[in-house]
């Protein structure tokens, strides 16, 4: 019996090894589109160096209305540092005065109040955004820069901080209650929604929607000083409820979220245009800001919607890494660093050309060059979100890569040769 069990065990080991090998072979066999193991092919290094520039040399077309900076991952310091360096460049050279983040409106309003002289620290303001990936020195540096700029800015020339997401509840509700109380609007029922994020509200989602909709009607009759912002706070809460109702599939939820984020970005643009500013800067994951992304047939991501709406007025900047040590969450909520390589021939050329970081404006690459063929062809680019699977991502590199024409997705790309992990601060009170 013991020999039989040993033989059975060896059989299962062989079967398992065969399955693993089959997975590796399958992953390698699709390398032409998604990238297999290793670091892949390399674009012409000499040609790349001829057209690549330093990030500080980045310029945008005159008629641009939205500049969108993407992240190949949320868990790398360099991509967060780019938020500040690119935004500062655009403030100084393109007259941009608004920064909008893939964070909820209410939490980012906390930041906006801080950079306009509010109490607390930059670290507390970053914590108010609500996502762990923003509790970093890099985000605090961005917030500190904006506050310092505003200390000496002329009237109407101040920088403003917005959020275009709707996944958080508390600050949107807090500031809506505040606006209503100032206008003398009864907030008794509204305050009953304060525990909704923890699922302790005595109202179900339909009742929550009713309460907020009735508040919107009261706002229209009131003399709230900033009724537009109060109304948007209410709309963001209704968006949060709508997103929570989507339980059929993750894809359906992603599609709705991107649609709502696009609507919010256009609202932010309209607010800035009323202030006399014709262009805004936004930042989010590559998968949200790209021009032709989708979650399946007939769907569109945020950048796709904005590009369709604004045409050449939408300027998309993608990013990629050659190698990344990326900070990612585990199932238990803790985070750990993992190493990945993209399969991007452009990122590899940037490395071989000696760049730590470089900017490639696709409009400057001539039609008759090999580099032009490379940016129009499907290439495999790194794409890491807030998730990790050792087995799946280890066996199938395509799971953290996206295959598409860089030129179709973006107007240009920034390449980071060696990306380092963000260091997330412990949770602190933002009060």
From TrEMBL:
Q: Name one GO biological process term.
A: response to antibiotic
Which InterPro entries does the annotation name? Emycin_Estase, Hydrolase/PRTase-associated
Stored CDD domains: Ere-like
Its recorded name reads Erythromycin esterase
Which organism encodes this protein? Answer: Roseburia intestinalis L1-82
